Amino acid sequence: MKRTFITLCVAACFATLPPLVFAQDAGKVLGGLLQNLLKPPQASNNSAPAAATSTNDLVGLLSQSMEQIDEPKEIEMGRQLAAVLLGAKPLHKDVALQRYVNRLGRWISLQSERPNLPWTFAVLDDAGYNAFAAPGGYVFVTKGLVDSVADESELAGILAHEIHHVVAKHHLAALRKSAQTGLLTRVLATQLSGNAQGAMSEQLLALGREVYSKGLDQGDEFDADRNGVALAARAGFDPYGLVAVLQQLRTARPDNPVFTLALRTHPATQVRLDQLEAAMGQRLDALSGKASPSVPQRLARAGNR
């Protein structure tokens, strides 16, 4: 009964979404998505005014406790770090795919512990097998990863994993740790230069590049795996979607450039699978086994509405 109720809720959500509009000017639509990704956060009734926070304030916060980074500042940091990812790879030009991934990601994020973040999801034009997140609700997946998933439940598991990284503020913790290794000292020293603001902005982005190239702590990845599975299940998807993704990743060769970054920045895949098996047991088996459409099938259905 519970599974049926969840499935009906998911079906109702997708059924009530407006039909996809295949714009003739794809560049204009993608430009709008890019603006949404990088625009300063807006003030809301539930938080302090979210005016763009200066890089000086953001960098200073990295030397303090996590609790002192309020939500507007977290979103501003994420906005700046999203630029690091978008600077490395452009958005994919498939407008229908961008809208679909945004809708799917936002539905899953609504089931998380931080549904009110300004969640934004996007597909990067990259053949690699990767997914990334930035503080404040920014989540990116590569076109290569989307093409590799067998069905929607696998993509949902990946998005849920990245969503939990944001919910748990794993990237903020990683930035703070990197800053404490000595880079922050050099950042603060730039205050004495004539262009301190610009220099500190560059150093903040350098922190982000370091985090994305090295990856998060193993404990954070295991945490995102466990909670991502639970989040995907709450959103009505097969909880074994992420398990299937990891099983595929386990067979990847480390020297294959498509998988190099994903394998380098995450714990050994078999260890992740073992951790998930121990955490899941048989508790979620009743929610598994339901047929899930592939991404092309979902896009075709949306286009025919």
Based on the model shown, name its key terms.
305 residues; single chain; mainly alpha; 3-stranded mixed sheet
Structure description:
There is one protein chain. The chain has 305 residues and is mainly alpha-helical. It has one domain. It has helices spanning 2-16, 26-38, 55-61, 71-88, 95-109, 143-148, 152-167, 170-189, 196-214, 218-234, 241-250, 260-264, 269-280, 295-303, and strands spanning 120-124, 131-134, 138-142. The protein has a three-stranded mixed sheet. The protein is globular. Mean pLDDT is 78; it is low at 1-27, 43-56 and 190-197.
Summarize the structure.
With 305 residues, the chain is mainly alpha-helical. Helix content is 60%, strand content 5%.
Give the class from helix and strand content and strand pairing: mainly alpha
Elements, N to C (H/E): HHHHHEEEHHHHHHHHH
Query: Unreliable segments (pLDDT under 50, ≥5 consecutive)?
Result: 1-27, 43-56, 190-197
Strand order of the biggest β-sheet: 1-3-2
Shape: globular
Total number of domains: 1
Number of strands: 3
What is the average of the pLDDT values? 78
**Residue fraction in strands:** under 5%
The N- and C-terminal alpha carbons lie at a distance of 29 Å
Secondary structure: helix percent: 55-70%
Round the Cα radius of gyration to an integer and report it: 19 Å
- Helix count equals 14
Q: In this structure, how is the largest beta sheet organized? A: 3 strands, mixed
